[in-house]
Amino acid sequence: MTVSIVVVSHSEKIADGAVELAAQMAPDVMILPAGGTDDGRIGTSLEKVLAALEQAGGDGTVVITDLGSAVMTAESALEFLENPGGVLLADAPLVEGLVAAAVAAQGGGDVQAVRKAAEAARGVAGHPGPAGPEAEPEPVSSAPPDCTGEFELVNQAGMHARPAAKVAGGLASLDAEVTINGVDGASMTGLMTLGAGKGTVLHVEAWGPDAEQAVEYVGGLVEAGFGEP
Amino acid sequence: MVLDANWAVKWLTLCAQAMAEHRVELIELDRAIGDSDHGENMDRGFQAVLAKLGESTPETPGAALKMTAMTLMSKVGGAAGPLYGTAFLRAATALGDSAEIDPAAWAGALEAARDGIVARGKAESGDKTMVDAWTPAVDAARAAADGGGANVLGVLVAAAEAAEAGAVATDPMVARKGRASYLGERSAGHRDPGAVSSALILRAAVGAAA
Asked: What pLDDT is attached to residue A42?
């Protein structure tokens, strides 16, 4: 049983569509939409959110929201829950955050790792939003890395969405800070912005207790061509 | 006059009446600085509360407010849903299972409601939001309750009058929270619709006790 995800949007169509998109990359993860009001208008509904949270169960649930009052409705739902311990709200862009979270959940990440994966999508989404400077990506340590590696992309399509999701999803569940060619390795969207095609060499730098494991993980995936031609 | 479950039902009924009567006014206020859905959302939310009251009669004021919280959060849709929902929920929690509300308990319930709104919406006094109606109401209710002599009607009146004055005082403010904050300086010169609906709710509490 993996971590499950609830998507709270003002629009039923957005929630349903985002779930459909993420489910493609995470077939075993329960991802539930809670979009629109009870009567199908634009807005958010506590009842829908509570129903989704109840259905979600599993080993914890991460909630991803769109605009302001969706956040408030999700917070209110937590206030109504008798045991909100296993439910975490992620402050993340809806689509990028959801896909990153879904991949992390598919990879077996726990509820903290899944939220972290979602939130790592924030800094590179190009929408700093009202949070302003807080939305900047976290600076990576200036100390020398604990482990490094260089790997050449061998698959035809290079670092496209699915490989980026695999890399980011796996790294999000490790206790390590990882950069790949300067971007946050736990951020799927960050990796995609590299535009790294076949033949590109990835410089992996890792800090933290799981640094070595993180570099090995990336190397293993890259050298196997992500299981692609 | 005692503030019991019957009073709470009457209060919520008068809230629904007030939202229906002021629906257009709230829409107009919200059109100036927001997305013009506040009147419609509040009317719909309290009509749903009315329907729930028709289905079953709450046994305590707290139970009535908790039902209201749940209904507003599910039916209002806009930001007002979770904000008012949280306000009613926190007030209900503060009142617990008590059968009647005394002056200190009313002041405490208002304070819990205001704290819930602040926690949920992250707005402060002067941001041109409903907090600018609630905080003066809490202070006035607390002062009236602490003063002793005031009966419970006096505390209700003090809170309602302070909320109404607080709503008027939002006119010159520049919005720093909510949709109106996108307008910046242009939000000055308009009354905040959330502060107005808050004052209507607290005025209805007086009407129910009169």
From this structure: 87
- Chain B nearest-CA distance from A8, in A, is 12
Name the residue with tokens 């209900």: B92
Closest-CA distance of chain A to residue B182, Å: 10
pLDDT for residue A215: 96
What is the structure's pLDDT at A104?
Answer: 87
∠ CA B83-B86-B88, nearest 5°, is: 110
- Which of B37, B47, B70, B73 to probe by mutation at the A interface, max A CB count within 10 Å? B73
Question: What is the residue type of B182?
Answer: Y
**A154 neighbors A67 (Cβ within 8 angstroms):** no
CB B114 within 8 A of CB B135: yes
Q: Which of A126-140, A192-206, B98-112, B139-153 has the highest mean pLDDT?
A: B98-112
CA distance A214 to A174: 7
Q: Which of A38-47, A206-215, B197-206 has the lowest mean pLDDT?
A: A38-47
8 Å CB contact between B120 and A76: yes
ipTM of the complex: 0.73
A124 lies in the same domain as A151: no
Parent domain of A75: 4-133
Tallying the residues shown for chain B, one arrives at: 210
CA atoms within 13 A on the CB side of B192: 33
Distance between start and end Cα atoms, chain A: 31
CB contact under 8 A, A72 and B75: no
Q: Are residues A107 and A14 in the same domain?
A: yes
CATH number of residue B154's parent domain? 1.25.40.340
Cβ-based contacts of A65 with chain B (< 8 Å) = none
Instruction: Retrieve residue B18's tokens.
Output: 């007030």
What mean pLDDT is predicted for residues B13-42? 94
CB A222 within 8 A of CB A153: yes
- Chain B nearest C-alpha distance from A130 (Å): 10
Asked if B77 lies within 8 A of A79 by C-beta distance, the reply is: no
CB contact under 8 A, A45 and B82: no
Tokens of B123: 């707005």
Q: Are residues A127 and A181 in the same domain?
A: no
Chain A residues lying within 8 Å of B41, measured CB to CB = 43
* Closest residue in chain B to residue A47, using alpha carbons only: B74
